[in-house]
Write a structure and sequence with these properties.
The complex is a heterodimer of chains A (503) and B (353). Chain A has 503 residues and is an alpha/beta fold. A six-stranded mixed beta sheet of chain A has the order 6-9-10-3-11-12, with helices on both faces. A six-stranded mixed beta sheet of chain A has the order 18-21-22-15-23-24. By secondary structure, chain B is an all-alpha fold. In chain B, α3 (49-74) packs parallel to α7, α7 runs antiparallel to α13 (296-312) and α12 packs across α13 (296-312). Classes of the chains: A alpha/beta (503), B mainly alpha (353). Bound molecules: adenosine-5'-triphosphate and magnesium ion (MG). Adenosine-5'-triphosphate (ATP) binds at residues 15, 18, 20, 38, 40-46, 392-393, 402-407 of chain A. Residues 44-45, 87, 166, 404-405 of chain A line the site of magnesium ion.
Chain lengths: 503, 353
């Protein structure tokens, strides 16, 4: 390890009912990429939020370059050269990229923002770190990967020497992730230090110099990346063997569940998002939709779920045309839906866990009678999901907001699978989940398929698609440009995804 | 639930203390005697029969109008229109009584039902405008309050008073005894206070325990996740507005069909509509709800306090303006925290990508 940049020692933090951090030590060397691994709820984000001044610790010390520092708020942290990019972005949508970058650290002359100087500064920065971006686009019009670039540039513009990236790749496509790695490398060459949180072991192996593994608020071990491999890491993380082997029964596609024909839809920006899409999903199969995000995945799922009206074509569940059905009616046809953005679409963050597990199901006789809810049944059901899915939470009465990202996702998947829907639309079902939970949820999808139910799996994670799908549809610019069968390799998929259709 | 209510009372009590303090300072600055004014106010409201009756009369309107604000608020829609919904509810009740004679018990009940339906229908307009035309209810409910007040005045002077045929200097029109609500023993007030408390308890149950209440809260806290699970936020908002409007309509019916307002021991309705009685009830109701941090049960307690302030006013008449100023200061201190929280969360909900 190089000279020590940052040392956190004996960090302790409790929330009502949970010990989130229990004496954590973390040492990061100057110019290195430190990976932090750990199952959902291990305390990774909490530790970083303390470092960045968003939470105050109950006990512990923080030193930077050998000097003890007191970080009371994020202004202190920024002053010390810390920068953080959160799991959820914080850009102002109707400002340009440039304005977002300089927001809060505008170069000014006599109290007026000096736009010329700002631009020169930002351009120099962009060039230096190789994060290419158009400075005059509105933040809201940027694809996800670019929003993240803006967040990183913003932190750097404020003088960050230590950059904290909390699950940066969860929202990125593999290609975008590759770009991010390039810039991270370039940053560390320039002397910056990066703390990198992720659940993807491959990424940890690819980008970090050292790895700290956390479990239940404690550090399990810290090791050099060159001494690590998949099994060592997975074991240390979850305390047991993780095998990514699924029991696929024989492939016997049954009745037709979902049929999409010539589907067209317009995106928010009024451009063509779906351009005459056709495919079907049968009982007993997992159909994967692979593709770089922003090629129509969101619109496709929203059209099926009745959240968006198609401009043409037909969607049938069985033989029933559902183009114009409201969401509530679609759900009644035994369709489950894991939405892509859990915080935005999947959970009501200010509802408790117990309230969230019955979202959309309150009318069921399991949970209510004549319009009056049955709290005991609801609570039993919530406890069941928490137990079955190994959700780490201080109870079923805590607000969803206070769960770690991965545990929020488990609540959603649990809720959707509990009803054993004939057809499950799973959009990024394992995003943000740790290895063990990922494996568990993926095995549930496989179980559904083996039990003769159908799954439409929409994912930007190539491995997930390749491992699980019986058939793979490759989506590009609103069209299906190719179909692969089980056993296809990543090379084939990659070629198709590049937009080079295998004709 | 009770400890929750008690906990939610703490900030209000702090605010109340601060409000009283600042108000006292203002009074001192104007050479008034705060201790004298406050003790006259509280003594009058709490120890005289007139004062106590008056407290109860204010209280039921305050409770109901607080509910009319907070229930739609749970669905994320701002009903500033309790005022207008109550006025039109009252007018509708009066019209029914004036034009349709019914047997005793049925008569007041029918009038109340008509009032509730009228308040609900009036509120539905603004609900629909927000849900389907993107016209913020904050704005439309305030505008429709003016329409309601003028409509009520017109109906009063051109329909109700001529029909009642008792032109007098004050235009007093007594309410038929057969349609007047039951009077409580000892106090000069009707059973509306009991009704209001029951409605508050019912609202608490409705919001926390029924599926519709759940959908209303879900819509208010996260309309996107609610929508993606099949809860239609637009319909839910409209329904919440309709229920809120119905409760306001009930308050209006109470005001015209009860003894104790303006005409002493008989019920009468004239000055009610022409701004007098209803004057600031709708807005006071909003303040009551805010102090109660939008909790239906806590609204009962916060209404007690506001009613005492209002009912004690005539007893502290040395300087009526200083009393008004004091009320305003206290309301600002007590309602501001919740109001700012609500505004902030509304803004927070906008998409910050
Ligand atoms: N504001 C909060 N209030 C209460 N509990 C909290 C709060 N924030 C975090 N927790 C709890 O602290 C623990 C650690 O959460 P944290 O978000 O740090 O986990 P994480 O390691 O980042 O997990 P993930 O990989 O799922 O993002 C969890 O049990 C979580 O429920
Ligand atoms: Mg986290």
């Amino acid at each position: 390890m190089n000279e020590t940049m940052l040392r956190m020692a004996g960090i302790r933090k409790t929330f009502p009912g949970v010990v989130a951090l229990d004496g954590v030590d973390l040492t990061v060397g100057q110019g290195e990429v430190m990976g932090i691994l750990g199952e959902n709820g291990a305390g990774k984000s909490t530790l970083m939020n303390i470092l960045y001044g968003l939470y105050t610790m109950d006990a512990g010390t923080i030193e930077m370059q050998g000097k003890k520092v007191h970080i009371r708020n994020s202004a202190d942290a920024i002053g010390l050269g810390l920068g953080m990019v959160h799991q959820a972005f914080t850009l102002v949508p109707n400002l340009t990229v440039m304005e977002n970058i300089i927001l809060g650290s505008e170069p000014s002359r006599a109290g007026v923002v000096d736009r010329g100087r700002a631009r020169a500064q930002v351009l120099a920065l962009v060039k230096q770190v190789g994060l290419d971006i158009d400075l005059d686009t509105m933040a809201e019009d940027l694809p996800t990967g670019f929003k993240q670039r803006v967040e990183i540039l913003k932190a750097l513009h404020r003088g960050a020497k230590v950059l904290i990236l909390d699950e940066p790749t969860a929202v990125l496509t593999p290609i975008e992730a590759e770009e991010l790695f390039k810039s991270v490398r370039r940053l560390t060459q320039g002397g910056s230090t990066v703390i990198f949180i992720t659940h993807k072991l491959k990424e940890v192996m690819a980008i970090t110099n050292r790895i700290t593994i956390m479990r239940r608020g404690k550090v399990v071990t810290t090791l050099d990346t060159k001494d690590a491999n998949f099994d060592v890491l997975a074991n240390a993380m979850v305390g047991r063997q993780v095998q990514r082997k699924f029991n696929f029964g024989p492939y016997k596609p049954g009745e037709l569940l979902l049929q999409v024909e010539g589907l067209r839809a317009a995106s928010k920006h009024k451009t063509e998002a779906l351009d005459g899409l056709s495919f079907s999903v049968n009982a007993g199969e997992i159909v994967g939709v692979a593709g770089v995000e922003g090629n129509g995945q969101t619109e496709l799922v929203e059209c099926i779920m009745g959240l968006m009206k198609p401009t043409g074509g037909a969607i049938r569940l069985g033989t029933k045309l559902i183009n114009k059905l409201p969401t509530s009616e679609v759900l009644k046809l035994s369709v489950g839906h894991v939405p892509e953005d859990r915080a935005l679409n999947g959970l009501i963050l200010d509802f408790s866990v117990a309230e969230n597990v019955v979202l959309g199901a309150t009318e069921s006789t399991d949970f209510s009678r004549r319009g009056v809810m049955a709290p005991r049944k609801i609570r039993d059901f919530a406890r069941k999901i928490v137990k079955l899915f190994n959700v780490s939470a201080a109870g079923i009465d805590v607000k969803a907001r206070n769960l770690s990202g991965g545990n929020q996702q488990k609540i959603i998947v649990g809720r959707e699978l509990a009803g054993q829907p004939h057809l499950l639309i799973a959009h990024q079902p394992t995003r943000g989940l740790d290895v063990a939970s990922t494996e568990y949820i993926q095995s549930l999808l496989v179980d559904s398929r083996n039990a003769g139910r159908g799954v439409l799996l929409v994912s930007a994670d190539f491995d997930e698609i390749l491992d699980l799908s019986d058939r793979i549809l490759v989506l590009y610019e609103g069209k299906i440009i190719g179909e692969l069968n089980r056993g296809a390799g990543i090379g084939e998929l990659g070629r198709l995804l590049g937009g080079i259709a295998a004709k | 639930m009770l400890t929750g209510v008690l906990k939610s009372a703490v900030p209000s009590l702090v605010a109340l203390a601060l409000g009283l303090l600042v108000a006292s300072a203002v009074m001192l600055a104007f050479g008034e005697d705060p201790v004298g004014i406050f003790s006259a106010l509280f003594r009058g409201a709490l120890t005289t029969q007139f004062g106590q009756s008056s407290v109860l009369n204010y209280m039921y309107s305050y409770i109901l109008l607080a509910l009319a604000f907070l229930l739609p608020g749970k669905a994320g829609i701002w009903n500033i229109g309790g005022q207008g919904q109550a006025i039109l509810g009252g007018v509708a009740a009066a019209l029914l009584v004036e034009f349709v004679a019914l047997p005793p018990v049925v008569w007041p009940l029918a009038a109340i039902v008509v009032a509730i339906l009228t308040g609900a229908a009036w509120a539905a307009i603004c609900g629909l405008l927000e849900a389907y035309r993107n016209a913020s209810a904050i704005v439309t409910t305030i505008m429709t309050n003016f329409i309601a007040a003028n409509l009520a005045t017109f109906i009063l002077y051109y329909v109700l008073i001529p029909k009642a045929h008792v032109p007098s200097f004050y235009n007093e029109v007594d309410f038929p005894a057969g349609a007047t609500l039951l009077t409580l023993p000892y106090f000069t007030t009707s059973i509306m206070i009991i009704v209001a408390v029951l409605v508050a308890v019912g609202t608490a149950f409705f919001l926390s325990r029924t599926t519709l209440g759940y959908k209303i809260r879900a819509t208010g806290l996260g309309s996107r996740p609610a929508e993606s699970k099949g809860i239609n936020p637009r319909t839910t908002k409209v329904i919440a507005m309709i229920i809120g409007g119905g409760i306001a309509g009930l308050a209006g019916a109470g005001a015209v069909m009860s003894v104790g307002h303006g005409c002493g021991t008989v019920a009468c309705y004239q000055d009610g509509f022409a701004s007098g009685w209803f004057g600031g009830f709708g807005f006071a109701g909003i303040a009551v709800a805010l102090v109660a941090v939008n909790d239906p049960l806590a609204s009962i307690f916060s209404a007690v306090f506001f009613s005492i302030l209002a009912a004690g006013m005539p007893f502290a008449y040395q300087n009526i303006y200083i009393v008004w100023a004091m009320q305003g200061i206290i309301i600002i201190f007590m309602a501001a925290p919740e109001l700012s929280r609500m505004i902030l969360t509304q803004r927070g909900k906008r998409k910050w990508t």
